[in-house]
Specification:
The complex is a heterodimer of chains A (292) and B (469). Chain A is α/β, with parallel strands linked by helices. In chain A, 29% of the residues lie in helices and 30% in strands. A 7-stranded mixed beta sheet of chain A has the order 12-11-10-9-13-14-17. Chain B has 469 residues and is of the alpha/beta class. The structure holds flavin-adenine dinucleotide and FE2/S2 (inorganic) cluster.
């Protein structure tokens, strides 16, 4: 008696990032910006957390973006339109804080380019002036532009190779805007952990309250196992139930990086032949290797 | 038949050195011959004390008499009159402090092996395909939502479906069974047994809705007001891991027992990479705690290849809360016990992985509120246990997810739900609760007992609703 979670639409939006539209009327009706789901491609798969990146309560569908990273995301990506996921649980986590802040800055990288959209929309609807910055290694990896432009008051792109927009990253554009005298009352970032850390560090000196959508390793997603725990301001928090939005200025980033890498060896066993294009870039950078 | 005064049968089981490296069930179960021999020891007391030791008052002498008559399936059905999951309870109940502790044979010698016999007839019934699916009662038109598919929720569902109510179970995870599935390992409770029990409920018409985190995808109020449920039973367990709150606890390779066991059991990490979820395989594993959960963790670690697997527990051996059989099995398998020892901090290596645990020796002082002598630290006795993995198994608390959207259900200061003990109704009308979310971590049989009380009260309430119309 498994439920059916039918894939209505699926394609690779840019290399390595796959868009899924899935039928789940229950989630589509309930979800709020900033929440996520846990997905299993098949009975033997892992439970993978994915951001709810759009939804249509009338159609009863939700949109997810999957960055192909390891065996489990590969299995997910190998499903086709018409297939059903094995398991889909959500919406999970607290909705992101959305209120009338004034000027809101939103930044997205990798899957976060897709995932930031509901937040941009919700922030706009709450009466904020919304600035969106997205980043990628190169212009052919940017996506979701029209949707983001459609809701943002201001929209910028950055690329590591300078092929579009500013050469650099979200935090570089942010610095530039602040230098130009722009004031932001609230910031929220979604993307790889390294990007989140860089962005949180960039808003800190300007005292811009900053939420980051942390991607911890998760299992149940309901606070039952504690594998998603992070230290925030000296206290242990569970990302799945206390987050995923966490105060970016209080996160113990070093610990988080270490915890994220626990299963690197196992991943290698199960995904030997694959070299992740986007992650390797970030890791090189994290180790101080400069441009990816 | 003359009473058989010879000794209690020995359970045939896998030899320790072999089983400590596989995930197959440890005890094989009694053969028919052994079961008959053991059953013949029962004196069929006129005033059976064993029943008073059972939280659900299983008709123990009656079912054992049926075994003597070689009517094994009938014996299983006799147990099921008060206990819906005998194949489970025969394996996981702490019989030595319940029924068997009251057996009169235990005064001079060894008590009847009631748990073994319970398992024997339940397995017989299932394996021979003799399980009877009760005829459904005429539909009452009433709908009940059961939240959580642990032993408590399954019991409520089983009792109410028989009475003709429509029953939906909502389970957060992708598999049913609660702790029976995600916590207790295969070598102690094969998952096919849990699955068979759930399948029986489904055959009777219970609707199982997996992947359904109540509080998130639906709230209790929505279940009642929008989805037309007449009553709700909350059996969500006590799944919030407690940590030690000592330095270094977020180092890598320090797990909560919940995480470790969920990876190993629910996600089948012991079959990695066939199953995609990994679990770290420590060489020198330390488990903090002395309950069943700790024993399951420490024995799982052995099976995942640990060279040493050690229990660190702050009290003395007699105070270990685990089932006696589990402690015994763990010892046979080579688990080390560091008793009267308490961790004070974790030590990490340059990669952020745990490499040791500093502990302090304890001694027993005055009795505390639980009546147990309280362990107190011996100053200056600190020492370091080297290890590459730690599993923290010091208990659980009330999981908050369901409460984020639940008004009107009062809870005590530990966060557990307050109920009327006669009915297990909460302070919110038509909302009932039982199992670990009411008592805190307890036992399978207590969770089932609570479910039984609630099911009875729910049924009466639903009938009364009809009369009012
Ligand atoms: C490793 C381990 C070993 C144990 N060994 C023994 C033993 O040998 N003998 C013994 O008697 N007892 C043992 N216990 C204790 C026993 O398992 C529990 O007391 C019993 O399972 C409690 O049953 P329950 O139905 O209350 O909850 P659980 O079994 O915890 O089931 C609760 C279910 O509810 C689900 N849930 C939680 N929140 C929600 C939500 N918001 N929406 C939907 N579903 C939700 C959970 O996913 C879970 O499936 C052990 C416990 C553990 C963890
Ligand atoms: S994923 Fe298990 S507690 Fe967060």
């Amino acid at each position: 008696m498994r439920r059916e979670y039918k894939i209505i639409e699926k394609y690779e939006v840019v290399p390595n990032v796959h868009k899924f539209v899935i039928r789940d009327p229950r989630i589509a009706k309930k979800v709020k910006a900033g929440q996520f789901v846990l997905v299993m491609a098949n009975e033997k798969g892992e439970r993978i957390p994915l951001t709810l990146s759009d939804w249509d309560p009338k159609e009863g569908t939700i949109t997810l973006y999957v960055l192909e990273l390891g065996v489990s995301t590969m299995e997910l990506v190998s499903l086709s339109k018409g297939d059903s996921l094995y398991s889909l649980a959500g919406p999970l986590g607290h909705p992101a804080k959305v209120e009338k802040f004034g000027n809101v800055l939103l930044g997205g990288g990798c899957f976060g380019i897709g995932g930031i959209y509901p937040l941009a929309k919700a922030m706009k609807e709450a009466g904020n002036s919304v600035t969106v910055i997205i980043e990628a290694r190169s212009n052919y990896l940017l996506y979701n532009r029209e949707k983001l432009e459609g809701v943002a008051n201001e929209f910028f792109t950055t690329t590591s190779d300078g092929s579009e927009g500013m050469r650099g990253h979200v935090q570089d554009k942010l610095q530039e805007l602040v230098k130009d005298g722009r004031k932001f009352d609230h910031a929220y970032f979604m993307g790889c952990t390294f990007m989140l850390m860089q962005c949180a560090r960039a808003t800190m000196p300007h005292k811009i309250p900053t939420g980051v959508a942390l991607n911890a390793i998760m299992l149940d997603g309901t606070g039952m196992c504690g594998c998603c725990r992070v230290t925030v301001g000296g206290h242990t928090k569970f990302v799945c139930v206390d987050g995923p939005e966490i105060d970016g200025h209080l996160v113990d980033w070093d610990e988080l990086f270490i915890r994220k890498h626990i299963y690197r060896e196992e991943e290698a066993v199960s995904y030997q032949s694959h070299a992740c294009r986007s992650l390797t870039g970030y890791e090189r950078e994290a180790k101080g290797g400069g441009e990816a | 038949m003359m009473p058989n005064l010879s000794g209690r049968v020995k359970m045939p089981e896998q030899p320790p050195e072999i089983r400590a490296r596989n995930f197959q069930e440890v005890p094989f179960g009694l053969t028919e011959e052994l079961a008959l021999r053991e059953a013949s020891r029962c004196l069929n007391c006129k005033n059976p004390l064993c029943r008073t030791g059972c939280p659900v008052a299983v008709k123990i002498p009656e079912f054992i008499q049926l075994i003597k008559q070689e009517r094994y399936a009938a014996a299983a059905r006799k147990i099921k009159e008060t206990n819906a999951l005998p194949a489970v309870c025969g394996r996981v109940c702490p019989q030595e402090v319940q029924c068997e502790s009251k057996c009169v044979l235990g005064i001079k010698g060894e008590p009847v092996a009631i748990g073994y016999l319970e398992r024997f007839c339940a397995d017989y019934e299932r394996e021979m395909g003799l399980t009877e699916i009760p005829e459904p009662a005429p539909p009452t038109g009433k709908k009940v939502a059961v939240i959580g598919s642990g032993p408590s929720g399954l019991t409520v569902a089983g009792d109410l479906i028989k009475l003709g109510h429509e029953v939906h179970i909502f389970e957060a995870l992708h598999k049913p069974g609660g702790v029976l599935t995600y916590g207790i390992p295969e070598f102690r409770l094969p998952k096919k047994i849990v699955q068979a029990e759930v399948d029986n409920l489904i055959k009777q018409g219970v609707r199982l809705e997996l992947d359904s985190v109540i509080g998130m995808v639906r709230t209790v109020d929505e279940l009642i007001e929008e989805d037309g449920f007449d009553a709700v039973y909350i059996g969500v367990g006590a799944g919030l891991p407690t940590f030690m709150n000592i330095p270094g606890e977020n180092l890598n390779n320090i797990y909560s027992a919940n995480e470790y066991l969920t990876r190993a059991n629910l996600m089948k990490a012991y079959m990695f990479p066939e199953y995609a979820t990994p679990v770290e395989r420590g060489k020198h594993v330390v488990v903090i705690g002395g309950g069943n959960v700790a024993m399951d963790s420490v024995r799982t670690a052995l099976r995942l290849g640990a060279e040493t697997s050690t229990i660190v527990y702050r009290r003395a051996r007699e105070q270990l809360p685990a089932r006696a059989e589990e402690v015994h099995h763990a010892e046979q398998e080579g688990v080390l016990f560091n008793l009267l020892t308490n961790p004070v901090r974790f030590i990490g290596d340059e990669n952020g992985c745990v490499k040791g645990m500093e502990c302090i020796k304890m001694e027993l002082g005055e009795p505390d509120s639980s009546g147990r002598r309280k362990p107190v630290p011996i100053s200056g006795s600190e020492f370091i246990i080297e290890c590459d993995m730690v599993i923290v198994s010091i208990g659980t608390g009330a999981n908050p997810v369901i409460f984020s959207s639940l008004e009107g259900v009062e809870r005590n200061r530990w966060g557990y739900i307050i109920v009327n003990e006669e009915t297990n109704e909460t302070t919110k009308r038509n909302v009932y609760a039982g199992g670990d979310i009411v008592t805190g971590s307890a036992t399978v049989i207590q969770a089932m007992g609570a479910g039984r009380i609630a099911a009875k009260a729910i049924h009466e309430k639903l009938q009364a609703m009809d009369r009012k119309k």
